[in-house]
């Protein structure tokens, strides 16, 4: 019976550690996404030579509901991780997700 209690305690510790790792990863990842989004928004706002229609099209991501923003950000990360002709600010984000899903993050 004591062995069962010890095993249960060890499993609880492992689960707690995994949950803490996921929470820490999520916090860092969301901060990176927000920085990336802020950078893109500032780029659009600083481009003075854009027409109103083009500005509206480029800022649609920032005016969308959270669910749609998540989907668009995921697509944007996917697209930029596939392009190798120029360095991307999104590639490290994709790498972080891949690493976390593989169990190596945290």
From TrEMBL:
GO terms for biological process: release of sequestered calcium ion into cytosol by sarcoplasmic reticulum; striated muscle contraction. Pfam families: RYDR_Jsol (PF21119). GO terms for cellular component: calcium channel complex; sarcolemma; sarcoplasmic reticulum membrane; smooth endoplasmic reticulum; Z disc. GO terms for molecular function: ryanodine-sensitive calcium-release channel activity. It comes from the Eukaryota. Residues 58-75 have a biased composition (Basic and acidic residues). Residues 93-106 have a biased composition (Polar residues). Residues 1-78 form the Ryanodine receptor junctional solenoid domain. Residues 57-106 are annotated as: Disordered. PANTHER family: B30.2/SPRY DOMAIN-CONTAINING PROTEIN (PTHR46399), RYANODINE RECEPTOR 2 (PTHR46399:SF7). This is Ryanodine receptor junctional solenoid domain-containing protein. It comes from Oryzias javanicus (Javanese ricefish).
């Amino acid at each position: 019976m004591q062995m069962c209690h010890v095993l249960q305690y060890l499993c609880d510790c492992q689960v707690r550690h995994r949950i803490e790792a996921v929470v820490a990863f999520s916090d860092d990842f969301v901060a990176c996404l927000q920085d990336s989004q802020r950078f893109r928004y500032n780029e659009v706002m600083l481009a003075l030579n854009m027409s109103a229609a083009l500005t509206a099209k480029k800022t649609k991501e920032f005016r969308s509901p959270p669910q749609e923003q998540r989907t668009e950000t995921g697509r944007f990360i996917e697209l930029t991780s596939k392009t190798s002709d120029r360095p991307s600010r999104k590639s490290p984000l994709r790498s972080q997700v891949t690493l976390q899903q593989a169990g190596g993050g945290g």
